[in-house]
Amino acid sequence: MGTAGDSEKKPTVVFVLGGPGSGKGTQCANIVEHFGYTHLSAGDLLRAEIKSGSENGTMIQNMIKEGKIVPSEVTIKLLQKAMQDSGNDKFLIDGFPRNEENRAAFEAVTKIEPAFVLFFDCPEEEMERRILSRNQGREDDNIETIRKRFKVFLESSLPVVEYYESKGKVQKVDAAKPIDEVFEVVKAIFTPKDEKVKQHCCAIL
Ligand SMILES: Nc1ncnc2c1ncn2[C@@H]1O[C@H](COP(=O)(O)OP(=O)(O)O)[C@@H](O)[C@H]1O
Ligand SMILES: Nc1ccn([C@@H]2O[C@H](COP(=O)(O)OP(=O)(O)O)[C@@H](O)[C@H]2O)c(=O)n1
Ligand SMILES: [Mg+2]
Predict the structure, then answer these.
(1) Helices then strands (H, E): number in the chain?
(2) Closest to 20 in 3D by CA, of 131, 129, 98
């Protein structure tokens, strides 16, 4: 029962990374529908924690407003609880790890290595356009905070992507294309290899 050395199988985790507005949440919803994963957005979990009136709420709210990254201890606890509550064993972890501290702590605490990292690559101007027309009433979707989030993304989050790149674990997707075109590429990444062979055979028959 969760003790070291037992035979309990570790869950499958895919980290979904990309700049603010690159389409992580949008594509995760599509992946859930087609491939039976549970979608856990670190940002959504932090926003729910603020709403719940938790003692960390004010701290989290201030950090999000400034585009800063919340200490991993807080975020990892929320992720672990959501994983347990889901009853599933396949997870898309969206917007996490966002810095080296997030990454190292998650690995140390959960002992889980991601199966791979899905990275949405999108130019900043396009991400800015998308966030400014997102209309989700988010306190951090204003131009001042957006600029700060872009800076944090370049300085702290991209190095995490590079770390996984050096381990050969990154599946990079051109996220500047329309939603359905991005999903075609994403779908191919999640489709098991034997299925792809089958589809290819059917296509040429
Ligand atoms: N490929 C795309 N092309 C145009 N708009 C998109 C695309 N993907 C997402 N969007 C829109 O851009 C906004 C940001 O997408 P979202 O999934 O919330 O990104 P993220 O979670 O990476 O911040 C949303 O309003 C969404 O509908
Ligand atoms: N791992 C994470 C993820 C998000 N966050 C905070 O939550 C904010 C919003 O994250 P998000 O993933 O919902 O944002 P988008 O990339 O979806 O636009 C970030 O700018 C951070 O302030 C965090 O502190 N740590
Ligand atoms: Mg999101």
Answers:
(1) 10, 5
(2) 131
Cβ neighbours around 78 below 10 Å, total: 21
Give the chain's largest Cα–Cα span: 62
What is the CB-side half-sphere exposure of residue 57 using CA atoms within 13 A? 8
Which atom of ligand 2 is nearest the CA belonging to 63?
22
C-alpha span between 190 and 188 (Å, rounded): 6
- Residue 5 Cα to ligand 3 midpoint, Å, equals 36
Residue-wise pLDDT tens digits, 60-98: 999 999 999 999 999 999 999 999 999 999 999 999 999
Please tell me what DSSP assigns to residue 167: T
Question: Strand 38-41 and strand 12-18: pairing?
Answer: unpaired
